[in-house]
Amino acid sequence: MTRRLPWPLVTGVTLAFVLLHLPVLVLVAFSFNASRYSLAWTGFTFDWYRVLLERPAIIQGLRASVIIGLVSTLIATLLGTLLALGLHRLGAGKLRRNLEAALYFPVVTPEIVAGISILALFALLRVPLGLTTVIIAHVTFSLPFVTIVVLARAAGMDASLEEAAMTLGATPTATFWRVTIPQLLPGIVAGALLAFTLSFDDFMITFFTAGPGSTTLPLVVYGMVRKAVEPTINAISTIVLLVTTVAVVGAELVRKERA
Fold it and tell me: In the chain, how many domains are there?
């Protein structure tokens, strides 16, 4: 028999979901609004998505976001996987606890503090701002997330399979690629998708570390909002939301399938 939930709990859950999703649903709906001012619904149209293709700044921003996202994700996934595997090999001990505590520190650091600190480092080293500095900054803040996800997967890894492989004559390299990596693969994929999501829609850290030729899509949207609020902004936001949603859902599906 299904237990009936008390009405205060149902009301609270409903209100929470409305507060979480209603603004996003309104934004998506008004990206198809024929009205130029987005104040009242006047009809359905795809015109604002077509207008996006006619603006070079938006296309360049999208291209920069994709390039930065893919490159930073590749580097962060590689380093994060190696770091997670190294922490896992340490076993339970004081050194591992200290290293994991240091790993969580960048996660809880406010983005504005991280952005200013990375900018100060680049200024100290006299590194010119551009595409490379944004990629380095994105690797810096996405690396801990990848490591945490892969480390969680490594905790459920069956060490006896590696021992069995080497007992049967497999070299350490063969064991790593044929036994260890396949077991870690769900965590690696989930971490990579999370890293790309964080990179693609990041604004604060990119704002401090971007230079000529590295204006990402969120920065383009910010520049447009400062001038005027128009329906194309809703369309861009919907595209960013779609990309991040697909990445997050993909990571969750990979995790559930392997689980």
Answer: 1
Residues 84-129 pLDDT 10s: 988 888 777 788 788 888 888 888 888 899 999 999 999 999 999 9
CATH number of residue 133's parent domain: 1.10.3720.10
Is 234 part of any domain?
yes
The domain containing residue 235 runs over which residues? 48-258
pTM for the full model? 0.80
Report if residue 24 sits inside a domain. Answer: no
Residue 32 lies in a domain: no
Residue 77, pLDDT > 90, answer yes
Residue type, 70: L
Q: Rounded CA gap, 226 and 33, in Å?
A: 21
Residue 43 falls inside a structural domain: no
- CA nearest neighbour of 205 among 121, 103, 94, 96: 121
